[in-house]
From TrEMBL:
InterPro entries: Chitinase_II/V-like_cat, Chitinase_insertion_sf, GH, Glyco_hydro18_cat, Glyco_hydro_18_chit_AS, Glycosyl_Hydrlase_18. Belongs to the glycosyl hydrolase 18 family. This is chitinase. PANTHER family: CHITINASE, CHITINASE 12-RELATED. It is an enzyme of class 3 (hydrolase). It catalyses: Random endo-hydrolysis of N-acetyl-beta-D-glucosaminide (1->4)-beta-linkages in chitin and chitodextrins. CDD domains: GH18_chitinase (cd06548). GO terms for molecular function: chitin binding; endochitinase activity. Residues 19-412 form the GH18 domain. Coiled coil: none annotated. The lineage of its organism: Bacteria, Bacillati, Actinomycetota, Actinomycetes, Pseudonocardiales. Keywords: Carbohydrate metabolism, Chitin degradation, Glycosidase, Hydrolase, Polysaccharide degradation. One of its GO terms (biological process) is chitin catabolic process. Its EC number is 3.2.1.14.
């Protein structure tokens, strides 16, 4: 057996005539939202995805990979009605939880690639330490490969979760830039991130030799141009990644003192901020920095950002606020399907030129990525010949999958 050439190993993760559609499924989706892996089948999402990122695996203080929610990941038992296979879990089976459901999902959709996503907003504290030295990088990657790719889950038989994941997605938020409180940050993160990717590729190789399977490596990358410049050696990073998913949302949110868009294609006229965040600004900066078009998978939101106590002028846009809008799980953020059920309370406004929409009722303002805007975003990605779209997150769509259907219609 011989390994694939480097270009093939790092790039050809799917049929390049078809844009990637990458969706995040979170471990907590199955709790209050009661959105199970099987719901991806029921609402037609699984059939429309090329890749699924399962979020998240965490790093401990030593930089080693671990499951932050063993019950959701590999212990919870599902009924026949809840499971992808239609068969109930039973006591003593080798593997349960979401990992077993993902295993069943892959059997049902054999072309679907599934990755484990590491880190995220609340799980990136120790990435800088893990990436710091050759020894720490090697130990970190070894632990992640052992747990998530070889499937050696603590408390289960060796290899109980083997073969589920086709690669690893690094969601380090953010190298050399502050994010969640308490994160370790270093100037050296920029070069160490590249070195960490090299270590992943190095340790993927012998595993591929043994089992004949090629493993992908992806990363979640920031929308903020300053964060990109501070934290990433862009050409080197993209040469090592199968593709990169670029944050295409959270341009503005409840942390701001005025209402604004969170995912506009172009900077809206009259934007009073100095940041001028927009999809076009982000994409142009990535291309200018050396990212290949075909490896930029651009993020789209299935959720809204909102404010309350909004001054009733200009249909609520660019107005001072009293604070983030009350919401179901987190102030200032709400699922699309939840807001859709309340749509009669609001009026919908659209900026066709800038490519964004919002809801306003005279005092509360929500950004609004509905099927019209998702189709528009899909067309933008297709027109610019980018590598596809990434979705955060799949549990926010409706029971009939109207957002992913609209996105795919724009991409095709």
């Amino acid at each position: 057996m011989t390994l694939a050439p480097a270009a093939q190993a790092h790039g050809n993760d799917h049929d390049r005539d078809k844009p990637r559609t990458v969706g995040y499924y979170t471990a907590w989706s199955g709790y209050d939202r009661n959105f199970l892996v099987n719901d991806l089948v029921k609402n037609g999402t699984a059939a429309r995805l090329t890749h699924l990122n399962y979020a998240f695996g965490f790093l401990d203080a030593e930089g080693k990979c671990y499951s932050p929610d063993p019950d959701a990941d590999f212990k919870r038992q599902f009924t026949a009605a809840q499971s992808v296979s239609g068969k109930a879990d039973v006591a003593g089976q080798p593997l349960a939880g979401n990992l077993n459901q993902l295993k069943q999902l892959k059997k049902k959709f054999p072309k679907l690639k599934v990755y484990i996503s590491l880190g995220g907003w609340s799980g990136s504290k120790y990435f800088s330490d893990a990436a710091l030295t050759p020894e720490s990088r090697a130990a970190h990657v070894k632990s992640c490969v052992d747990l998530w790719l070889k499937g050696n889950v603590p408390g289960l038989k060796p290899g109980a979760a083997a073969g589920i994941f086709d690669g690893i997605d690094l969601d380090w938020e953010w190298p050399s830039s502050p994010a969640n409180d308490g994160n370790v940050i270093r100037v050296e993160d920029k070069v160490n991130f590249t070195a960490l990717l090299r270590e992943y590729r190095k340790q993927f190789a012998p595993l591929s030799w043994r089992n004949g399977k090629k493993y992908d490596l992806t990363a979640f990358l920031p929308a903020n141009p300053g964060m990109l410049d501070r934290g990433f050696e862009v050409p080197k990073v993209f040469s090592l990644l199968t593709f990169g998913t670029v944050q295409g949302y959270d341009y503005h949110g409840g942390w701001d003192s005025t209402t604004n868009q969170q995912s506009a294609l172009r900077t809206p006229a009259g934007d009073p901020t100095n940041s001028n965040f927009s999809t076009q600004v982000v994409v142009d900066h990535y291309l200018k920095s050396g990212a290949p078009r075909s490896k930029i998978v651009f993020g789209v939101p299935f959720f809204s950002r909102g404010w309350t106590g909004v001054k009733n002028e200009n249909n609520g846009l660019f107005q001072p606020v009293s604070g983030p809008a009350p919401a179901t799980y987190e102030a200032g953020q709400e699922d699309y399907k939840t807001l859709k059920a309340q749509l009669s309370k609001f009026k919908v406004y659209r900026d066709e030129k800038a490519g964004h929409a919002w809801l306003f009722d005279g005092t509360t303002f929500w950004t609004w990525d509905d099927p019209t805007e998702l189709k528009r975003k899909g067309r933008y990605i297709s027109d610019r010949k980018l590598g596809g779209a990434m979705i955060w997150s799949l549990d926010s769509d409706t029971a009939d999958g109207e957002l992913i259907r609209a996105l795919q219609s724009g991409l095709s």
